[in-house]
Amino acid sequence: MPRNTERTTVERAPLPGAQIGVDHVRLAYHYLDAGDSDGYASLVDENAVLTHPSGGTARGPDEVAALVFACLDGQGPHRPERIVARESTVVVTGRAEGAASGRRGFVDVFTLGVYGLLLTWRRFHADG
After folding, report:
1. Least crowded by CB within 10 Å, which of 9, 80, 115, 122?
2. 11 Cβ neighbours under 8 A, 6+ residues apart
3. Nearest CA to 96 among 64, 125, 67, 54?
């Protein structure tokens, strides 16, 4: 019997937690802009690891929240313009309009843990 060598692409439905993850990402921006590091930490997965380009690495909710607040101080408020979620990934495009950043575009890519909590986060900047 001949073997089928065609590849099939399977579209996977979003995980039920994807909407929860989107809500957590939106809430993370709110806590970040409000200066609420405890609230932000409550949205971070216990297995989260965040590495900053300057060489700092944080593990766990409290360390990650502290690093995020140290790195993004003065860069808000954040104005998300588009949020796209697929399985365990949430991508946000928007603008930060703080005193330190002026008006700067960003793309944030979040990976979600099992319960929709933030596991990783990577930010890309754009001028303008």
Report:
1. 9
2. none
3. 125
Does domain 18-126 bear CATH number 2.30.180.10?
no
Q: Please tell me what DSSP assigns to residue 44.
A: B
Q: What is the pTM of this model?
A: 0.79
Cα distance between residue 108 and residue 106, in whole Å: 6
Residue 85's closest CA among 53, 109, 49?
Answer: 109
Number of Cβ within a 10 Å radius of residue 35: 11
- Kindly list the domain boundaries of the chain, sorted by start residue: 18-126
How many residues are given for the chain? Answer: 128
7 contacts: CB under 8 Å, gap ≥ 6: none
Q: Which residues pair with 94 in a beta bridge?
A: 80, 106
| pLDDT (tens place) for every residue of the chain, 128 residues total | 444 444 433 334 445 567 888 999 999 999 999 999 999 999 999 999 988 777 688 999 999 999 988 887 667 788 899 999 988 999 999 988 875 556 778 899 999 998 899 999 888 887 65
